[in-house]
């Protein structure tokens, strides 16, 4: 097994066992029930909504300005984010990481390597020494401004990397609900008749608040956004890529052993990846081939999800392998993960993930890196979803259905 395991998928490995005892099987609730659950167990829960439609997004500063879940159907609507009900209700903090869930959380990379933020200087790259930094795991972010459909959080702190470099930094994170006009503008098409939608943009700003410039030879950081969603037997992740002659060299599909062909299909310039929460596997796309949008289609629930983000083809993307690296800035821009049982049968999920990362930059004192991501969910008839899938990916839903029926 390769050691290039990223933390989005490490959740299932590192905590599945020690959380299994406290995780209770809570049936997925609707959005209103999830909000009530979060309000019961957390102090700072905010619902963003507009008066013009039934889209809602719930966020919390208790978990680093995390988007916990969203809906296109008001309080009674489907709740899209995966929540770790057992851990949230326990009120406990675990060693190494606290996998509360949520459909978009703010992290920093890299995870492994000589510039790792998750290992102390000089220690072996093993689980005993692996620790998620508090500023992206247990810290509370404070509200700077708030309106009905937008909220901004901020946090100031510091972190040390494996090479001993200390970073003083500021984090500002804005979550804003998008209306139907903004959605149509982003997908460059009008929404099909009968489609319900929810969309939000996060604007993530990392600022060097120290006295000296960050240097490549001492380590740089990336903004890393990870989303956890609910799977179904009829869900596939859609990951488009640039179909270059050597494109396959820039796609990694063996993080946990080679993904079998029944779970991964290459179709023209699209990757179809089974997201049923039943078999662990992970994909990585380098910035040379990653396109600035990925998502999923759930044919069981007639929903489509798409994430938009920026990709810098010649940018420095941090490498998170658990080893000293020859190329610490040759990492992935996009990752997709399907959860599944561990060898002992335990499982934290099920869930699936879509992750994106910014490039890493040598920021001068007072200089900032800004990274934006837009998440959209659509619900509607099969015909309406077909129209959207065609607009976004030129993808017939029949091809998705055929792939998901592969044994």
TrEMBL record:
Xref: Pfam families: DUF6786
InterPro entries for this protein: DUF6786 (IPR046713)
This protein's name: Lipoprotein
Lineage: Bacteria, Pseudomonadati, Bacteroidota, Chitinophagia, Chitinophagales
């Amino acid at each position: 097994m390769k050691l290039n395991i990223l933390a989005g998928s490490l959740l299932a490995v590192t905590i599945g066992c020690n959380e299994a005892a406290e995780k209770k099987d809570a049936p997925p609730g609707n959005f209103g029930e999830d909000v009530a659950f979060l309000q019961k167990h957390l102090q700072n829960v905010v619902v963003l909504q507009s008066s013009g439609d039934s889209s809602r997004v719930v966020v919390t500063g208790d978990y680093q300005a995390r988007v916990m879940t969203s809906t296109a159907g008001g309080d009674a609507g489907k709740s899209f984010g995966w929540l770790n009900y057992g851990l949230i209700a326990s009120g406990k903090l675990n060693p190494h990481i606290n996998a509360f869930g949520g459909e978009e959380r703010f992290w920093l990379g890299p995870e492994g390597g000589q510039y790792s933020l998750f290992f102390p200087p000089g220690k072996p790259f093993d689980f005993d020494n692996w620790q998620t930094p508090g500023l992206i795991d247990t810290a509370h972010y404070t509200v700077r401004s708030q309106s009905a459909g937008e909220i901004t959080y901020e946090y100031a702190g510091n972190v040390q990397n494996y090479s001993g470099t200390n970073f003083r930094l500021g984090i500002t994170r804005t979550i804003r609900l998008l209306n139907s006009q903004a959605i149509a503008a982003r997908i460059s098409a009008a929404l099909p008749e009968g489609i319900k939608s929810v969309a939000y943009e996060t604007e993530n700003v990392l600022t060097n608040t120290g006295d000296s410039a960050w240097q490549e030879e001492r380590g740089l950081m990336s903004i890393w956004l990870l989303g956890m969603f609910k799977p179904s037997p009829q869900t596939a992740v859609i990951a488009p890529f640039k179909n270059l002659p050597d494109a396959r060299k820039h796609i990694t599909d063996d993080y946990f052993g080679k993904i079998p062909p029944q779970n991964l299909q290459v179709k023209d310039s699209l990757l179809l990846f089974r997201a049923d929460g039943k078999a662990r596997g992970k994909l990585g796309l380098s910035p040379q081939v990653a396109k600035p949008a990925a998502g999923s289609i759930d044919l069981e629930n007639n929903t489509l999800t798409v994430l938009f983000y920026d990709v810098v083809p010649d940018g420095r993307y941090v490498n998170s392998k658990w080893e000293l690296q020859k190329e610490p800035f040759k990492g992935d821009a996009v990752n997709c993960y399907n959860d599944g049982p561990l060898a002992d049968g335990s499982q934290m999920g099920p869930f699936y993930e879509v992750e994106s990362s910014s490039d890493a930059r040598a920021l001068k004192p007072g200089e900032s890196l800004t990274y934006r991501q837009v998440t959209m969910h659509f619900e509607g008839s099969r015909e309406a979803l077909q129209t959207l899938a065609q607009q976004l990916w030129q993808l017939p839903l029949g091809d998705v259905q055929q792939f998901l029926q592969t044994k």
